[in-house]
């Protein structure tokens, strides 16, 4: 082997090792995604900011450097994360593993995706957290107090029977599809613009936020819709306990009145979803994908 004209390395091992160490100090991003390679010891990567190691069939992670800000280790075979995570960590993506518990989370984390694991509870959540995706776990409950900075919450496909009584006033998107909820919190955040609560056991809906744009409450036990905010553009509400065939009775009249108000204001009509077979079949396909290999997020619907 020749390196810059040098063929005999016996006299310069220390210098080359020193150069190698200095080079590692300059690296800020490592990407081992889908390489099936083992991650090396990271002790020398003292300025590493981002580590990507998804889709590698990994069962363990090495000790992480204190400088790390973003860790993406999704779609592996991890059963646990390092006991101590760097305090500098801002983004943690550890979904689609075999995690049964999460370690203590650094307080500066802004985005946490721990979806599709085996978690039955969550640790205390970081105070600055803005996005939480805990979809498809074994959660029976969420932490009583959620971070006041939270704007996105996906807790769908768990075993939740109740949500925290008070949701963050910053929350904009809430997906609690496919749980065992009978009621939603009495007061929903006024910041909420999209609400997915389909495939539960809801018997009613609370007063809806004045700025709500999308409402999905398919397959529950709801018999009457609440007043619809003028901001509402999309509502999916079939397969509930409305009057037979969702005929022009109370709730369909309510939708018509809602659309008339929007017409006067020059706004487009709300899409009225009934028991139309084609729509139901399309929704069933989406439901199948939720639980199958071809996962499609409900937020794409």
Give an overview in words.
This protein is low in regular secondary structure. It has a domain at about 1-140: Alpha-Beta Horseshoe (Leucine-rich repeat, LRR (right-handed beta-alpha superhelix)). The protein contains three helices and twelve strands; from the N terminus they run αβββββββββββαβα. It has a twelve-stranded parallel sheet, with no helix packed on it. The radius of gyration is 25 Å and the shape is elongated. The chain starts with 12 loop residues before the first helix and ends in a 10-residue tail after the last helix.
CATH superfamily placement of the domain at 1-138? Ribonuclease Inhibitor
Report the top-level CATH class of the domain at 1-138.
Answer: Alpha Beta
Sheet with the most strands, sense and barrel status: 12 strands, parallel
Q: Evaluate the radius of gyration.
A: 25 Å
Protein structure class = little secondary structure
